[in-house]
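Technical annex B. To support the medicinal chemistry partners, we prepared a structural model of the target in complex with zinc ion, based solely on the information shown next.
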Amino acid sequence: MYSKTGIPLFEEMTWKDVDDCLKKTDVCIVPVGAIEQHGFHLPLGTDTFIAQEMACRACAELARRGCCAVVGPTVPYGVHPEATHYPGSLQLKPMTLVLLLKEICAALQQMGFRHIALLMGHDGNIPAMQVALQELQIERDLDVMCVNWLLPHQGDQRRILPLDFADGHGGARETSRALAAFPDLVHLDRAVSYIPTFPPKPVPCSSEPLLGGAVYRPIQALSMDYWPDRHPGQDGDPSFATSQAGDALYDALAVWLADLLIQEYNLAPKEEEINHGP
Ligand SMILES: [Zn+2]
């Protein structure tokens, strides 16, 4: 089984397992990740694996409160044009991701899932996720929610792993989440430090909307020096990562996500919790 929580992924179940789950819940959390370079030390599937672990921990938290949800299916592809020059990065066009998400959600609806939460594993996917759910609402009257944990967990991340330098994609905090979930795939011996020096922001709140800011200008990401011979592919210093910090970040997120699902979907405790093996 992938996650040490013991929560099975959709892909690990048989059709009968899914059928049994549907008798107990109509909620599923669909991790939406990416196959994207993450520096010298993290695997291409980092965003996908982390989103799966977040969903599993949230389901484990729900189970502790007597509530059920299913993790998956996972969407492992994302939108990340800035990573094009790094071998292994396998990106979709935004509209391809919109169509993919719509068809997956429609299939889940058809089999009986009425509440679907798309869990952001890669921030570049957020616009496509939002378009997909707007269209699903209009076309199928399907209740889909896009969950972006980045903004509500900015404070948690800074509190749990304080750093006095820039930390981002593949940096100490993301590497901590990787160490806590899939340590065998983390190559800290190959990690390098790369602290970016961002230019001063021209106006207040100019960070991207996904981080609570007001201005989204994709050319800024595309014009970064993202070439393999100039940039290791990650921002920050992974040597500050610890699996304990990763666990603490997952735990904070699991409580937040469980609270959110219970509140939004009016989940009530069930007598038995889902406990199927792969
Ligand atoms: Zn990432």
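Notes passed to the chemistry partners:
The longest strand covers residues 27-32.
Helices lie at 15-22, 46-64, 94-111, 126-140, 154-160, 172-181, 219-222, 243-265.
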